[in-house]
Amino acid sequence: MPSIDVCFSPELLPLFKLQGKIAVAVDVLRATSSMVTALSHGVVHIAPVSELTECMAYKDQGYMVAAERDGVKAEGFDLGNSPFHYQEEGVRGRHLAITTTNGTQAIRLSRPADEVLIGAFLNVGAVADYLRKAGKDVVVVCAGWKGLFNLEDTLFAGALAERLEGDFELNHDATLAAYHLYQTAKSDLLGFLSKSSHVQRLERLHILPDIEFCLREDVYQVVPILQGDFLVPAQ
Amino acid sequence: MPSIDVCFSPELLPLFKLQGKIAVAVDVLRATSSMVTALSHGVVHIAPVSELTECMAYKDQGYMVAAERDGVKAEGFDLGNSPFHYQEEGVRGRHLAITTTNGTQAIRLSRPADEVLIGAFLNVGAVADYLRKAGKDVVVVCAGWKGLFNLEDTLFAGALAERLEGDFELNHDATLAAYHLYQTAKSDLLGFLSKSSHVQRLERLHILPDIEFCLREDVYQVVPILQGDFLVPAQ
What is stated as this protein's family in its record (chains A, B) (predicted)? Predict the structure, then answer.
C-alpha cells in the first residue's frame, strides 16, 4: 500500500526522499488557494517564481504578474495573493507569474519529486482522487511560515490523509499528527485557527473573507500540476 | 505573559531565538527519560556528549559510559538507553557520560538559551513548576528522529503546555498543535502512539516496558539543568 507522509517545513525537505513519489505543495493561506482558483477560472498557466524581479520580467511577455511579501501585495505588481483576485472574468485566457513569501519556495523545493501537484482545501477531493489513481507514495510539502510549522497547512495534510484513509498508509508520525489535528478541527476550521498568533496576524491584514474562502473544501475540481516551469491543470 | 513555543526538530532550531529564554530539551524515547531517572536515583552529574569516542573517553575518569545508536546499546559501553538501567542501587554517587542518536544533539543545540532543562513525562510537573517560577519565555526542543518530527516528544510538549495554561501564552502554531494532540492522546498515550511506524520500530526492539515507563507522568521531581558541560539537579 502506498503511504502519505507530511513535511511540516521546507527546511526539513532535504530529509525526505522525493524521487519516485508525488509531492503535493500546499500554502493554504493563500498562495496555493489562489493558484487553484486562478486555473479554475481560466488562467492558461502559472509560472511560480522565487524572486520579485524574476516575476516582474514576465510582464513584458504579456503575463499578469502577482507578488506577495509578508501578507501584502508587493509594489508595482498587478495582483496580490487573494483568491478573489483570480475570480474576475478578466483572468480567463491569461498567463500568470506569481511569487509569494512561502508558497512558491515550497513548489521549487518539491521539484525532485516525480510529479508536483498543488493542493488546497478548495481542491482537496480532486487531489485525493488523482493520488488514488496514481498509487504512488505521497509527500505533502507544507509551505509553513518562513520555515516554521503552521497549522493551516498541517490541517490540509490531515484532510488529505482522511480522504486517502484505507488506500494509503497513514503511519508516519507527521501524518498521524496532521490526521488527528484535522479530526479535532474539522467541524470549525476557522474557530480552531483563530487561536493561532499566525492567523491573528493575517486577520489584522483584514483578509478574513480570504481566510474563510480558503478553508472551504471541494469548491474546485482542478488539480494543478507542474510541467516544466509552469503549473497547468492535470488532464 | 511569557509564552511557550515548540521546535519540532533540531533542524529547525536555527529559526528560533533562544537568547533570553529557557530551553527544555526532550527525547521521551528514551534519552531524557533515562537522564531524569539517573539523577533521581543518585547519579551525581551527567555529561551529555555527541560522539561515541568522546563518551568513551570519560571511562578513564571513572564515569559510567552509556551509548545508544539506532535504538540499541553501542558496543563496548557500560549502559544503553533504558531508564531501567538507571534505577539500580549501583548508580548512586556515580558520574555518567551518555551519547544517544537524537537526544544529546538536542541538548547541545539548546545551549544558546539562558538555561537548558531536561524534560520527560516522568518529571513534567516538576519542569512546569520550575518554568512557572522562572517566568521566562520557553522553547521546547524536541529531539525528533534523525531530524524528523516525532509524536512522543510532541505529546510531551503538549502535556507541558497544558500544565502551563493560564500562566503562559499558548498561541504559537506548534504549541497549539502539541496541546491539541495531547488532548486527543492523553487518556491512552501508548494506544495513541502504537499506530506510529516510529514507535512500532522501537517495539520491535522489545522495549515495550521501557516505552510504558517513559509515558508515565510525575514519577520524579528532579529537574535536570545544564551547568557548564554537565546536567545536575536544579536546586
Answer: Belongs to the ComB family.
